[in-house]
Amino acid sequence: MSDELILHLSNSSNQSGQSSKIAKLEARLVGKASSAASSQPQHVQTQLNSWTVPAKFGGAADGLQESLVDSDDSDDDIRKYGVMLTAEDMILLYSGGAYLIQANTQKRRKVDEVCSPISVEQAEDSNFSGSTQTAAADARHKNTEPVDNNKLGGDVSKRKQSRGRANTSSGRGRGSRVSDQARNQSISPANGQVENSPCKDGLVKEQLGHDSSREDEGTSLRAKVSAMEEELKKSREEVSDSRNKCERLEKELKDIRDYEQQMKPKRMKVMSDLLVSVSKAERQEARMRVRQDSLRLGNIGVVRAGTIISEAWEDGQAMKDINAQLRSLLEMKEGIERQRKSLKKRPSGDLYRYALLKGFQKTTKVDMVKMVMILNLDKGEVADADGVNQEEDVLMQDEIFKSRLASIKREEEAVLRERDRHELEKGRLIREMKRIRDEDGSRFNNFQILNHRYALLNLLGKGGFSEVYKAFDLVEHRYVACKLHGLNAQWSEEKKQSYIRHAIREYNIHKTLVHRHIVRLWDIFEIDHNTFCTVLEYCSGKDLDAVLKATPILPEREARIIVVQIFQGLVYLNKRSQKIIHYDLKPGNVLFDEFGVTKVTDFGLSKIVEDNVGSQGMELTSQGAGTYWYLPPECFELNKIPLISSKVDVWSLGVLLYQMLFGRRPFGHDQSQERILREDTIIKARKVEFPSRPSVSNEAKDFIRRCLTYNQAERPDVLAIGQDPYVIYTKK
Ligand SMILES: Nc1ncnc2c1ncn2[C@@H]1O[C@H](COP(=O)(O)OP(=O)(O)OP(=O)(O)O)[C@@H](O)[C@H]1O
């Protein structure tokens, strides 16, 4: 606002109330009195707020514009006054004590006439500072078009929006430029219009100075905008690239899945073919090995006794040789023994007297064996036995016999060790022969794929009612053991049902068990009316029974680590909410995986401990066969229903450790199951005895004694025996 206008306004003392308002308005326009402006009555302020500062004021307009944007009332005001005017388009007119607002058409014309190039540029500059080109177009547009209230309203709100986004980049400091512009305007009271002051040279120069700095700013902003636009373009391209890639990958994935689905049966076929050819080679190799070994170790032959034909073992050549060697050594031993006896029978001093008779004065260097031969052949011929000390000779001869006997004994021991080794080999050979025979006789020996995923390979072994095959799971890609439970077709329907119930019960117990030292049960399915299959974790090592058959005594260190692992499995069974008694712990139910990790299997006889069971244990309602060497005395109780608990498994663990350390079971080792029952062997098993050899640590013996505590009440249960240092594994 020009100085003249300020003077004019300040001189109008008779219009004090209004003039103070004007002063405040002016101050607000020159950007000096924001505080004064804020004290304006709401009405006036709102009106001001409804003005839009011309775009050409660029940054200077921001101060005002900000207050417009900040005002929540502005939209209300637009609604209230029906139009929204811009300061550029309007002038403030004092007429007859009232202020009027009129359209500033003349100002526009004048500016267009005199400074049209500048104002257009300014408008453009301000457009950049205002961030949209539309605003520039608006600014130019307003100069030529009549005021359209509705349109103006729309423009204002558009600008408000664009301001809201962009005005942060333009500083409030530009308010001074607003005041400069304002000062370049004057009010002509005659026509009531605000005019731009004439564009004199100084002003133009000043204007040009400002314009050039604005131009610089504009240029840099333009550059920024174009860089940002470039970035935006790139980002858009990247987004579209990524989207394309994503679509391509999704399509590829789908193709792969389709292909995978298509290839699945083919892949399974290739895999099973490979496995089958490997298994066939293994079968062939196994049979060839058996043939070779049976030449050496023996074979099962048919023996006829009258009308009865039975099978009997016929030794192979190696066994025959060993036996012949043993026989020859035995004969030698007996010959020497005979000589020793005859030497002792001869009257004392006989040889000495004979020698004297023959004129021998002292012992000659005649070999004593030769002497014996001479004596035996013809006593009269001992002519040159000069000076023999008969007593000494007898002693020497006896010593020679003894020495020879000792040497024969050593030879014999070596041959016996060899024979034991052969016996073990023979045992393995017999088991392998049996396995091959079972495999040949099995109806599952032709590499079937069960349940569309388990490729049956070779038979691992046959139990009482089941065959266990090594198999490959074509879905999970791992080896498994398929246990095929066959119901005897001759059985009554009742027996079949009972067997199935039993197997399902076993499955239900076993399937919930997940522990490193317990064989996992993966699956169960029916094969036909009389057969079903359970799929177990495959343990490629031998079972403990086979280990003990090969090496009946294990070093204590090895035995202990096996016991500790079994014990950990038992602790797991007893820490579950539903406790389980295994009830059939024996070497055949302890398996080893390829790394030698011990795993307990076969839950066919296991018992679930009911919740309400007392401290003495639960009733043993279904005894099951069990294996008597490994069961505690309470299981043989006949007068009342036995009460059992995890103490049964503790007893079995003690028997297992004893067997591993001493190579025999503590009770009824040489007895059959039937004899154990008949002779009450376990009921009489009150005290455990330890052989003197091999030597075993006292800790091991103490642990075994605790496990084999006769009195059930005094025997610790699984969790209590866990306190024993022998099963708390610490490196010694
Ligand atoms: N998960 C397995 N992994 C590897 N071999 C196994 C597995 N389960 C069983 N076997 C082997 O299969 C053979 C037969 O096992 P099974 O449990 O049927 O026989 P068993 O215990 O001798 O008989 P039963 O259970 O009728 O008393 C055994 O030699 C055993 O070592």
> Could you tell me the radius of gyration in angstroms?
57 Å
User: Which segments are poorly predicted (pLDDT under 50) over 5 or more consecutive residues?
Assistant: 1-17, 29-99, 105-199, 361-365, 377-387
Rounded to the nearest angstrom, the distance between the terminal CA atoms is 101 Å
Lateral strand order in the biggest sheet = 7-8-9-10-12-11
Average of per-residue pLDDT values: 74
- Content-based structural category: alpha+beta
Strand portion: 5-15%
- Shape descriptor: elongated
Helix content: 40-55%
Sheet of most strands? 6 strands, antiparallel
Number of helices: 22
Bound molecules: adenosine-5'-triphosphate
Total strand count, please? 18
Q: Could you please describe the fold and organization of this structure?
A:
The longest helix is centred in the middle third of the chain and has 97 residues, at 201-297. The protein is of the alpha+beta class and 732 residues long. Residues 1-17, 29-99, 105-199, 361-365 and 377-387 have low confidence and may be disordered. It has helices at residues 3-11, 16-29, 34-38, 42-49, 58-70, 74-81, 105-129, 133-144, 149-166, 175-183, 201-297, 317-345, 350-357, 368-377, 390-441, 493-510, 544-550, 556-575, 647-662, 673-678, 698-707, 718-721, and strands spanning 90-95, 98-103, 185-188, 193-196, 298-305, 308-315, 449-450, 454-462, 466-473, 478-486, 521-528, 531-537, 580-581, 590-592, 598-600, 607-608, 618-619, 643-644. It starts with a helix and ends in an 11-residue tail after the last helix. The chain has a 6-stranded antiparallel beta sheet with strand order 7-8-9-10-12-11. A two-stranded antiparallel ribbon has the order 1-2. Helices cover 54% and strands 13% of the residues. The chain is built from 22 helices and 18 strands. InterPro entries: Kinase-like_dom_sf (IPR011009), Prot_kinase_dom (IPR000719), Protein_kinase_ATP_BS (IPR017441), Ser/Thr_kinase_AS (IPR008271). ATP binds at residue 483.
